[in-house]
């Protein structure tokens, strides 16, 4: 796949072709630096973010027979951020439990190994073996499972539990946890009734983006939602906080072609890349960000761009392996950093240097050429 790489004038095209030779430096062999997170959520010794399968395995081995809880999350999902807050509180009360968070798309080999297909998903480990699983943003159920699997340290945590939330408030939060929410029996990986299995397949076939909640894991939600929505059966699908219906309605919408326009569609990688590239008129894909560059080439290019005074945004390709690998194919440009202006690839460090030396860089960054 390719896009218009030349920017807009003959000089850029000439430089682009000159630099797009096998002599280009490839990042394939570069050493990835560990991601450093300084938020309050990662300040505790027993609450750790990992960015590689090796880190993950090492933490499980270190925990041994003690409980480890792994949260597979996505940075774009607000319910994941909320559940990270829950994890942080649990980590304070349960110092002998190891809490781990992994960006699902950032550690694809781990996500594939454990068949992670939706976020948030929680896996529970003892002696490096998975002993339980929880799908969805369900703080009480997460707390319950942690206390059950780590009984020796569960006592203090119970004393710190907040007052029980009103059921209707809780149901409203669950319904609005994602733009499209499916309440079903079982998980998307393991549906536990035929109707749930059918509706998961339909949503998958039509590339619908959604989160799910297992009503078998919470009898209070299972019974309360029937009254709240005045809909006596499951599965139930909600869009924008409003009940859409059950299996029969989803089937009808799919047959009429209305399902795609009613429910949010999952972005393909191509659409996602286009969206990120066009996030700002000037977008730089690099290792690190404009405050902290994580390789020499990235450090040099931000120094050159900063000297022009032109505003720009950055994307850290170390934080997203899907974008890092996909953009190479999309742009037909195998190395980083990569600079885009108004959605079009300008090039890497060598091209930017040449444009700087020729006096054309500022006008190119402003989209005047």
From TrEMBL:
Name of one Pfam family that matches: Thioredoxin
Matching InterPro entries: Glutaredoxin, GRX_PICOT-like, Monothiol_GRX-rel, Thioredoxin-like_sf, Thioredoxin_domain
Gene Ontology cellular-component terms listed: cytosol; nucleus
Alphabetized UniProt keyword annotations: Cytoplasm, Iron, Iron-sulfur, Metal-binding, Repeat
Residue ranges of every copy of the Thioredoxin domain listed in the record: 15-176
Places the protein is found: Cytoplasm, Cytosol
Example GO biological process: intracellular iron ion homeostasis
Single GO term (MF): iron-sulfur cluster binding
CDD domains: GRX_PICOT_like (cd03028), TRX_PICOT (cd02984)
Main localization of the protein described in the UniProt heading: cytoplasm
Source superkingdom: Eukaryota
NCBIfam families given in the database record: Grx4 family monothiol glutaredoxin
The name this protein goes by in its record: Thioredoxin domain-containing protein
